[in-house]
Amino acid sequence: MGLLNRLNDPYEGGGIILGTVEDVLNWGRSKSDWYLSFGLACCAIEFMAMNASHFDFMRFGTIFRTSPRQADFIMTTGTVTLKMAERIKKLYEQMAEPKYVMSVGSCSNSGGPYWEHGYHVLKGVDRVIPVDVYVPGCPPRPEAMEEGMVKLQKLINQEAIFNKRKKMADLEKLAKSEK
Amino acid sequence: MQAQEIFDILKNQFPDAVTALNSEPSFDPFIIVETAQIANVALFCRDDEHLQFDYLMCLSGMDLGENLGVVYHLYSTTLAHRIVLKVTAPKTNPKVPTVERVWRTADWHERECYDLIGVIFEGHHNLIRILCPYDWEGHPLQKDYKTPEEYHGMKVPY
């Protein structure tokens, strides 16, 4: 990226970084994402294991915030019932832009083991709020959730602040050429 | 104390309310009680010095096709014996007197039974839904229940 490797440059006098504003802002935003954890069911237990010292989620710069106003993204860990779905929608609308959603576990991805006979379960939290990253598993291992966080960081690094349309078109072309 | 002795004590006190004892060896012995008298029978079970059933372990609802039933599992912490009481009510008029005044735990158990099976407990001070959303229609654990298509704008089936 060229952001940090010119700090010791002798010709420039040292201490000068050249980069784009978007790179700096995205780097700052992706490496200190604060999340509103929505621990609903069993996936929340794996989430607590991920926060503990063995897997250490905090090294991604994330801190657990309790209020949606102070949070950057929301992690829906667990089964989303119809009764709870209205509350999740309210919380999502209360979060400030830019905000992201990570759906952890089968239940919030697509209904999970209750897909066939669950009369009370919302089959996937993406029926009420837009989701950015899906982490599969029942429950997903803590390493899988951390990979979800890495994917979210990559997503944030690609965000455009100036010339949004051009950047989106470039990214699409890149994705198509990779296929 | 064995189930037959408990049945005899209850039969002496309530000759017309307590009807039968089922003591097949393969499962717990249960006593069938007439529905209108269940509150009196429950109070006697708790207060009598030989019975002393002070712990309602569980209150469950049943869907028996034409009738709805309620099952009470009782246990005595002082005398260490247990018994099961059963009542039934027709599906068209599923009213059962409440035992909330006898054992306080029956408050939420009866709300759950009303929510999921549909038994209406007379005399309950606050019989509203406890697990499903408050404006849900239907009683989900009945055998002929159909999942609704939509709830508050959200699509329910897969």
Main attributes?
heterodimer; A: 179 residues; alpha/beta; 5 strands; B: 158 residues; 3 helices; elongated
Structure notes:
The complex is a heterodimer of chains A (about 180) and B (about 160). Chain A is an alpha/beta fold. Chain A has 6 helices and 5 strands. In chain A, strands 2-1-3-4-5 form a 5-stranded parallel sheet. In chain A, strand 1 (about 35-40), helix 2 and strand 2 (about 65) form a beta-alpha-beta unit. In chain A, helix 1 (about 20-30) runs antiparallel to helix 5 (about 140-155) and helix 2 crosses helix 5. The two termini of chain A are about 25 Å apart. Chain B has about 160 residues and is α/β, with parallel strands linked by helices. Helix content of chain B is about 20%, strand content about 30%. The interface of A and B includes residues 83, 85, 86, 110 and 128 of A.
Summarize the structure in short.
The complex is a heterodimer of chains A (179) and B (158). Chain A has 179 residues and is of the alpha/beta class. Chain A contains 6 helices and 5 strands.
Proportion of strand residues of chain A: 5-15%
Shape of chain B: elongated
Briefly note the structural class of the backbone of chain B: alpha/beta
The pLDDT mean of chain A sits at 86
Helix content of chain A: 25-40%
Oligomer: heterodimer
**How many H/I helices of chain B?**
3
Number of strands of chain B: 9
State the strand order across the main sheet of chain A: 2-1-3-4-5
- The separation of the N and C termini of chain A measures 24 Å
Structural class of chain A, by secondary structure, is alpha/beta
How many β-strands of chain A, per DSSP?
A: 5
**What is the radius of gyration of chain B?**
17 Å
Order of helices and strands of chain B: HEEHEEEEHEEE
Number of alpha- plus pi-helical segments of chain A: 6
Order of strands in the sheet with most strands of chain B:
1-2-5-4-3
Sheet-strand content of chain B, in percent, reads 25-35%
Average predicted confidence as pLDDT of chain B: 89
